[in-house]
Specification:
With 73 residues, this protein is mainly α. The chain is 71% helix and 0% strand. It is rod-shaped.
Amino acid sequence: MTLQELQKEILQLPTSDRWQLVQTILESLKRETLPMLKQRNLSRLRGIAKSSVVADNTDPQEDYATYLTEKYK
């Protein structure tokens, strides 16, 4: 069956059946595309938790004060 034949058959269905078909097609597209989107998003985040600053035993209040000082220079 060609695409044109399928479209012609679909247009002859009752409205409720066509809506059900639309929902079924959308769900199938979501299942096929979401794993690819998730994988692509996760690969972009790789290394985001890495820190170039080595943690030392400094005072958190002092660190915050330094941060604010640098921020508002």
